[in-house]
Amino acid sequence: MKPTLFVLAAGMGSRYGGLKQLDGLGPNGETIMDYSIFDAIRGGFGKLVFVIRKSFEKDFREKIISKYENHIPVEVVFQDLNNLPEGFTCPEGREKPWGTNHAVLMGKDVIKEPFAVINADDFYGRDSFAVLGKWLSEVDGANKYCMVGYRVGNTLSESGSVARGVCETNEAGYLTGVVERTAIERINGDIQFIDENGKQVILEENTPVSMNMWGFTPDYFSYSEEYFKEFLTANIGNLKSEYYIPLMVNKLIKEGTATVKVLDTTSKWFGVTYAADRQGVVDKIKALVDAGEYPNKLF
After folding, report:
1. By C-alpha distance, which of 35, 99, 132 is closest to 243?
2. What is the gyration radius of the CA atoms in the chain, in angstroms?
3. Which is nearest to 174 in space by CA: 265, 114, 269, 258?
4. Residue 119 pairs with which residues in a beta bridge?
5. Which parts of the chain sit beneath pLDDT 70?
6. What is the Cα–Cα distance from 209 to 207, expressed in whole angstroms?
7. What pLDDT is stored for residue 117 in this prediction?
8. 171 Cβ partners below 8 Å, 6+ apart?
9. How far apart, in whole angstroms, are the C-alpha atoms of residue 286 and residue 273?
10. Rounded to a whole number, what is the distance in angstroms from the first to the last CA of the chain?
11. Where are the beta strands (DSSP E) in 155-290?
12. Would the pTM of this model clear 0.85, i.e. be above it?
C-alpha cells in the first residue's frame, strides 16, 4: 500500500497574509509546496491530504489543489478551534490554533494507511521524500514510527539564527527525545546555541534535527485523541497553549508504547525564515532546476 502525504497548511492564510501571497519561487511561479508534492509523487506516495481552515477552502481548491488533481488523489480536511473532544468547549478569547498535533488529528477519518506529515512551507528536498516513502511503504505492524533527521548543518539560515528540535538517539538510531533549541547559528565556523543555563553549546555538523517531517501508522490517531483530552484538561485555560507533535511523540517514546526510527537524509532544508532569505531560496531552486534535479515546469 502506498503511503499518504499529509500537508499541514491550516496556518497558510495567516502566515502569508492570504493565499494570493503564496510566494512563487520557482522559474514558473512554483511554490515551495509544489516541490514537496512533486518529490512525494516520485518518492512513491499515493495520496495527498491537506489540512486547512474552512475559511479559505474555495481559494485553496482553485489555486492550489487544482494543480495536483490530475497527478495524484487529493483530499481536504479542516482544522477548527471548536473541533474538540466531547465534554470540552473552546474558551472565550481563544484565537490561536490548537497546534500541529491537533491538525494531524483532523486526518483520522480519511487516512487508513501509513502516512507522512510535513509543513506546507518548508523545502525538504528529493532525498528526504525518497527515504521516508521507502520506510513507510515497508513498515509492518503498528506503533512503529519514523522521522527524517536532517543534519543540522544542512538546515541553517544565512540571514540569522534558527530554532530546531535537536534529536537525541540511541545506538540503534531510534529517537529517545526531541529538545527544542533556539538561536542556533554558525559562529566562527561552529554551529552553536545558548542553553537554558546560559552556557554555549556546540553542535556537531551532522547532529540530527527535526524539521517536522514525520512518518506514522494510523494507530497514532487513537493515541493522539486520548492524550489530547489530558492536554486540554491541563491547559484549557491557557489561551496560547498548543498540542505539538513532539509532545505526543515524546510521551509515546518515554512510555515505551512506540518506537521512532530517525532516518538520515542528505537533503538540504531551506525556507524563507527571514525576508532576506527569499532571493537565496529562488537561487537555490534555480540551481536545482539547472542541475536537472527538477523539470523547469513541475505541473
Report:
1. 99
2. 19
3. 258
4. 8
5. 13-21
6. 6
7. 98
8. none
9. 19
10. 25
11. 162-169, 175-187, 190-194, 200-203, 208-216, 259-264
12. yes
| In the chain, % of residues over pLDDT 70 | 97
260: helix, coil or strand? strand
The region that residue 219 occupies, defined by phi over 0 for left and psi between -120 and 50 for alpha, beta otherwise, is alpha
How far apart CA 92 and CA 114 sit, in angstroms, is 36
The pLDDT, as a whole number, for residue 19 is: 63
Query: How is the chain split into domains, by residue range?
Result: 4-149+210-290
Does domain 4-149+210-290 bear CATH number 3.90.550.10? yes
Answer left, alpha or beta for residue 252, where phi above 0 means left and psi between -120 and 50 means alpha: alpha
Q: Is 28 helix (H, G, I), strand (E, B) or coil?
A: coil
So what's the pLDDT on residue 17?
A: 58
β-bridge pairing 190-194 and 200-203? antiparallel
Tens digit of each residue's pLDDT (9 = 90 or more) over 21-41: 577 899 999 999 999 999 999
Q: What is the dihedral of CA 201, 204, 208, 209, to 10 degrees?
A: 40
Specify the amino acid at residue 60.
F
pLDDT number for residue 16:
58
Cell representation of residue 206: 551532522
